[in-house]
# Entry
Amino acid sequence: MISVNTNTASSLAAYNLGNTNVQLQRSLQRLSSGSRINSSYDDAGGLAVSMKLSASIRRTEATQANVNNALSFLQTQDGVLKNADKIVSRISELVQLATDVTKSTDDLDLYQTEVDLLGDQLALMVDEAFNGISLFDGNTLSVVTSQDGLQTVDISDTSGDFDNNVAQALASGNLDLSSAPGVAAGEISVVTDAIQALATLRAANGAQQSRLTFAADMLAINKVNLESANSRIADVDVASESANLARLNILQQAGTAMLAQANQATQSVLRLLV
# Structure
């Protein structure tokens, strides 16, 4: 049947060409954006999963920043304790020197003056802070170490001992070196106890830093795995999509040619009418 009013071949060619053009535009969008999913229409289920994975990645990054800040807190704390160790070691040396029976009262007074000043410096260290948070108030800080908020690590739970067992014990006026060498000898145990307390604090600080470092490493690994999972869902396979783009370009050119051919087919009617 030859018809003028209805050109079925042309309609089908136009329909197929339209579909090809739509797919071609989507392919170009995928390659230009690098994403396989650019709208919910592309993959509704995949988009939902990708959104949740993306949110998890962002939370993991934020958790990493928080853990690194906690590490900086502990490093600052250890820096103060390290300096305190130098002061306590010097006080220990002065106490030992004051036990020398050949020292005069004037010599002992000089030792006493330095010990008192160093004790004052230790007392000032107790008030050190990190971003407004006290380093040595004895409070426990709970650091969240997982993006879901379920895992935490407690730090600084013994830092108050620096004030109680070190700074207060060696505070100005608490050590007596000026009376006689025998009196100074009795103060040695006070200093050694302070050294032990300080050593315990630094060991606890180091253990906490080690644990947070492993927690930070775990977050980094989790982030890589989450990004990999999200990439498999949301990112475009460039090689595959490039091949698809080439196929669609050929279909578009063929469809355009066939539409033109279908439109020319009705010209045969003129031969029947002449």
User: Anything to note?
Assistant: Strands lie at 129-130, 133-134, 141-144, 152-155. Residues 44-97 form the longest helix (54 residues). The radius of gyration is 39 Å. The mean pLDDT is 89.
